[in-house]
Amino acid sequence: MSFASAWVGHLRFSLEKNPMKINGNIMSVVKGGKCGSTYIDRNLHALLSNRFGRAFDELPWGQKGPGSKFMTCFEMVKRNFGLNDEREGQELGPLRLDIPESEYYDEGEFAAKLT
Fold first, then answer.
1. What 3-state class would DSSP assign to 50?
2. Rounded mean pLDDT of 48-67?
3. pTM score of the predicted model
């Protein structure tokens, strides 16, 4: 007789009550890395590397890595995703890139455009 089940991390447990003891069984195991925040961040970096090449790749990690103003801005974009469906795109910055004119970069705002 199962009386409880819950997710703990990436595992789903089912607990069964027996008059003498409680048994726990792992029901499901979920492999991470497909939808978490780190996966999304890595894909943002891959997208920007694809769009801007060396100009993005050679930026110091302090300007584009965890804890940077740029990534803090991206955290806000992720947090607000879906809350305002009227906006067609987002701008992420500051990101100082030395690139020719691009539809994906606002040089005046030092911002990458996500559409």
1. helix
2. 95
3. 0.66
